[in-house]
Amino acid sequence: MRPPGPTIRTIPDGDDRERLVCGDCGFVVYENPKVIVGAICTWDDRYLLVKRAIEPRLGFWTMPVGYMELGETTEQGAAREVWEEARSRVEIDGLLSIYSIPEISQVHMIYRARMLTPDHAAGAESLDVALLRWDEIPWDHLAYPNVRWSLEYEREMKGQTGFAPRGRPER
Amino acid sequence: MRPPGPTIRTIPDGDDRERLVCGDCGFVVYENPKVIVGAICTWDDRYLLVKRAIEPRLGFWTMPVGYMELGETTEQGAAREVWEEARSRVEIDGLLSIYSIPEISQVHMIYRARMLTPDHAAGAESLDVALLRWDEIPWDHLAYPNVRWSLEYEREMKGQTGFAPRGRPER
Ligand SMILES: [Zn+2]
Ligand SMILES: [Zn+2]
């Protein structure tokens, strides 16, 4: 027996790509790439990181980051994620990095943000949160390579404005 | 009678936002913001524009632009749209603009691109295509304000690299 919901992969009439279609009700799912927004947040020379409370990479550290939602700008989404995961209010201050990950159809947009106060606390999706000096960052326990890339670019661009966002390093 | 497919707006178990759910098969639609990619393409001092063959804004001019698809980077998506709509091969060369349109949950990412040859032709979604000098651009018949904004920023940044992408002008 087929599971319920859109499970049939076919090219709908008038389309030019395969989509998922429901065999029961005919609903067509238009899957699109997803936008992930986040921010490297700083207070003086310290960086705001959260320890993930959910899979994947549970227990590893990252900048606050998550799926962009409907009805917000990318900057609003990044600030919302910072609030949800690290309970910090920030001012978004430039786009640091854009990482396309075509293998999983994601576009990550990581901003630079200035904390308005040093206050922070773990949100529901975080086991822990910390405001760390550069040499206190748990480099061997970061959730993803792009956490390191974005931290390094933030540090490199400190005090500068008007720079181009950086992508994945060439491999 | 309810139409088929996901039409019931409710908060699924374990979620914190309303989603569209199908009353027949229970399928939950996770709607996310969509990414639109495009490019301002130039050959010497001329700009590549297409006349839209589809609604909305049928008959108006725009840079090649459209929905990012699964399995591609933003740059690949922009180059694909240029090929599909204007039959031109380009090299993507920096991100010009990012426009969040929260009212319709879209993120537009417009690149700067260099045409590899002056060849071009109307694709299936274009009524016409043209390689125009600045003063030949049909300013009163552009499809959207961001066509003008991106053209102006391309011109302003001519010969420069490493600049920050620009958003919507402040209003
Ligand atoms: Zn169904
Ligand atoms: Zn259904």
From TrEMBL, chains A, B:
Q: Where is the Nudix hydrolase domain?
A: 30-156
Indicate yes or no for the key word Membrane: no
Tell me which Gene3D superfamilies the record gives: 2.20.70.10, Nucleoside Triphosphate Pyrophosphohydrolase (3.90.79.10)
Report the GO molecular function annotations: hydrolase activity
Keyword list, A-Z: Hydrolase
PANTHER family, sorted: NUDIX HYDROLASE 23, NUDIX HYDROLASE 23, CHLOROPLASTIC
Question: What protein name does the entry list?
Answer: NUDIX hydrolase
Organism of origin is Paramagnetospirillum kuznetsovii
